[in-house]
Amino acid sequence: xxxxxxxxxxxxxxxxxxxxxxxxxxxxxxxxxxxxxxxxxxxxxxxxxxxxxxxxxxxxxxxxxxxxxxxxxxxxxxxxxxxxxxxxxxxxxxxxxxxxxxxxxxxxxxxxxxxxxxxxxxxxxxxxxxxxxxxxxxxxxxxxxxxxxxxxxxxxxxxxxxxxxx
Length: 166
Prior knowledge:
Layout: E1 10-17, E2 20-27, H1 32-45, E3 50-51, E4 54-55, E5 63-68, E6 78-80, H2 90-97, E7 119-124, H3 147-151, H4 157-165
Parallel strand pairs: 1-7
Antiparallel strand pairs: 1-2, 3-4, 5-6, 5-7
């Protein structure tokens, strides 16, 4: 539920896992940590206990985010979104460059270069997994439906041959 009316600084982000898509309305400067918390709250509010056999984590730290390798073709795969943690000496460097060395993106959708309507994959960290867990591993279970999946081939050749046989 929105506590304030939306402004142009709010974006709709599409969070995807398997066949599930969750739309969240977030501020473009909101931290990914709070966005993950909102995502977990939204999932829990629906009464869902697991997605595609993966149990919901106890807290938002158990959610890993990812972005498409090619935003125009999500079928090419996903790369983990490494959210920088700023501490002490690195603070000045991060402010000047905007992104921590070694990270894929910054700590907010705007800083990450995302746009309104962007697609973000999510998955749940396995219980007992270490913090050094590699978010770039290729187990992003995101299914993007295609026109052919929904409505069949456009050439109609299979449909005609099956009609002729009957």
